[in-house]
Amino acid sequence: MDAPAQQALSFRILSLNTHKGFTVFNRRFVLHELREAVRGVGADIVFLQEVIGSHQEHSTRYENWPRVSQYEFLADTIWKDFAYGRNAVYPGGDHGNALLSKFPILSYRNLDVSQRGPERRGLLHCVLKHPGSGQDIHSICVHLGLRESHRREQLRLMCRLIDELPPDAPLLVAGDFNDWRQRAHDLLHRCSSLREVFIEAMGRAARSFPVRWPLLSLDRIYVRNVRVLRPEVLHRRPWAHLSDHAALTAEIQV
Length: 254
Known about the structure:
This protein is α+β, with helices and mostly antiparallel strands.
């Protein structure tokens, strides 16, 4: 007999461009407040973009700068597994994408998808083990470029990465796509059968930028081989004061 639908295994995900732990225009360092807000969502998997691994100048300038990397500070004791993909390296520091997980991370790799010019971008691919079902869950944390020509090539590289994954495995792809013209939806559906969760639930992509007056749909959650419930944009207090992007969250069933 099939298990009832209400017994489906579910978990919550969250995606956020952290703006390196600063408010809009870098006026205030708010990483401690951001950690409390992220904790409050109760997410099992957290996709982070623009998170700092190290920064020598900031660590001496800000009294409350954490002694560990920002992603370790955010993970704390809640998310015991985490992975970091260093994308941008500069004198005295680096930043990139990170994934925090309450599920074991079996493996991870960071794919450099940077194009010509100073922008450094990456795709952080992690394989997680769901403790309830024992299934492998593939998760890709995304931060794409500002130029459309760069994004087209980066999306092509993402499709190539997804082609390498088991076709029947649960797949989550989330992050900052910078796709203000919304060209990614059709391409990712055609090449990888990905569904965007807000389009599926509400008929359009979520507006997430700028956080206080969201006009552009830059942040996305795409999925495959899972069911999605209650996608939500978090752009009111406290989120409106914690980054220049709104956070996205959704419940996932496998």
